[in-house]
């Protein structure tokens, strides 16, 4: 509890200061684009929420290093050092709007390569015999690890579209990691997961529902990187944990990303990185919330924005809960993974065709 509390206090205080004095820096920290297809806010808002999360992770790492656990603290500092590239590229984009998606992905891959070397965080198995044989080749394992880590970091960034969406989903996932780490006695993963929960919650209280600050690319890439590294380390260190556990746990943002790539490349014939306004969370906003909650003024737009996120929190729970309960049962986890993907596609096409299930319709 001390780790969570400390991380929360550092993150919430720094985030408060960013929000409180936003007029002093909003000319280069705020998101002034109010018309983009993925923009759903009514006024410029600082998008450097990742700063508080990063700072709290550093502080907790240093204090843990001094006491009470030198080994865990040293490992946390190494993880923080590895994360610099992923967070730095995203944070620089938040400030300058000049870092392309490909450059951010490459920077995250560099962070993943550093973690592979420093922490020995490599994806060595996925519990599929043929693939595991390929992963036994060190170079291949490292390359796939870099792709997987950057992919998850990008996926967290993709679902960061509404107040509280990416942050709450991430906290749910870190809570799952903490539970499984406790079950297998992994103090490092448990401590980092608790630190991330506290740090993200310190940001969350200023982001949801008021939307006074955004996570930004720096925050999203940092969260995704740490989430991926903890999952990889759990699988690498504990053979009793099924490799299907982290797959199901993070399947919502991952499948959202893969489905978006399919929809853009195959269905629409545009580049995979082309922005659009038909992600599942955007459809929930447009097809359910836009007509359910009032006019186009700022107050109603903010309410619609915040009321969109709980739908996706529940969707994420449909995957995270069974992943957490059956973390050592590969067959059950694989079945739930297939069910989730089928349900996602079914739900998406129902909403996009204006056939929203009645149980999803909000009534004032």
Which keywords apply here?
15 helices; 364 residues; single chain; mainly alpha
Topology:
Elements lengths: L1 H19 L1 H8 E2 L13 E2 L3 H17 L3 H27 L4 H18 L10 H7 L2 H21 L6 H20 L2 H21 L8 H22 L6 H6 L1 H18 L11 H13 L5 H28 L4 H23 L12
Antiparallel strand pairs: 1-2
Helix pairs in contact: 1-3, 1-9, 3-4, 3-9, 3-10, 4-5, 4-9, 4-10, 5-7, 7-10, 7-12, 8-9, 8-10, 8-14, 9-10, 13-14, 14-15
Subcellular location: Cell membrane
InterPro entries: Glycosyl_transferase_4 (IPR000715)
Pfam family, one: Glycos_transf_4
Total domain units: 1
- Please describe the biggest sheet, giving its number of strands, its sense, and whether it closes into a barrel: 2 strands, antiparallel
Strands in their spatial order, largest beta sheet: 1-2
Report the principal-axis shape: globular
Unreliable stretches: none
Protein name: Glycosyltransferase
Subcellular location: Cell membrane
Main location: membrane
Organism: Cupriavidus basilensis
In short:
With 364 residues, this protein is an all-alpha fold. 74% of the residues lie in helices and 1% in strands.
């Amino acid at each position: 509890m001390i780790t969570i509390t400390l991380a929360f206090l550092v993150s919430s205080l720094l985030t408060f200061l960013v929000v409180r004095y936003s007029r002093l820096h909003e000319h280069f920290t705020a998101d002034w684009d109010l018309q983009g297809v993925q923009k759903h806010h009514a006024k410029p808002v600082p998008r450097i929420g990742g700063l508080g999360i990063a700072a709290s992770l550093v502080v907790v790492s240093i204090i843990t290093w001094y006491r009470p656990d030198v080994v865990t603290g040293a490992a946390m500092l190494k993880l923080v050092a590895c994360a610099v590239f992923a967070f730095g590229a995203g944070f620089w984009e938040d400030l300058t709007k000049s870092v392309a998606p490909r450059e951010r992905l490459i920077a995250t891959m560099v962070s993943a390569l550093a973690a592979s070397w420093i922490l020995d965080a490599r994806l060595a198995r996925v519990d599929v015999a043929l693939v595991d044989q390929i992963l036994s080749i060190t170079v291949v394992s490292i390359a796939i690890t870099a792709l997987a880590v950057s992919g998850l970091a990008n996926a967290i960034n993709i679902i960061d579209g509404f107040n509280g969406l990416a942050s709450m989903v991430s906290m749910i996932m870190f809570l799952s990691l903490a539970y499984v780490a406790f079950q297998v006695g992994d103090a490092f993963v448990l401590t980092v997961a608790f630190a991330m929960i506290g740090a993200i919650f310190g940001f969350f209280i200023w982001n949801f529902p008021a939307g006074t600050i955004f996570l930004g690319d720096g925050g999203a890439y940092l969260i995704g990187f740490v989430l991926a590294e903890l999952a990889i380390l759990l699988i690498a260190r504990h053979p009793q944990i099924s490799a299907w556990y982290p797959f199901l746990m993070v399947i919502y943002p991952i499948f959202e990303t893969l489905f978006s790539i399919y929809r853009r490349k195959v269905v629409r014939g545009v580049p995979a990185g082309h922005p659009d306004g038909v992600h599942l969370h955007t459809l929930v906003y447009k097809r359910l919330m836009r007509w359910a909650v009032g006019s186009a003024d700022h107050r109603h737009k903010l309410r619609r924005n915040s009321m969109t996120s709980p739908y996706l929190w529940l969707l994420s729970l449909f995957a995270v809960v069974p992943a957490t309960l059956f973390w050592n049962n590969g067959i059950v986890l694989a079945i739930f993974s297939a069910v989730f993907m089928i349900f996602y596609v079914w739900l998406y096409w129902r909403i996009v065709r204006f056939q929203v299930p009645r149980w999803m319709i909000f009534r004032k």
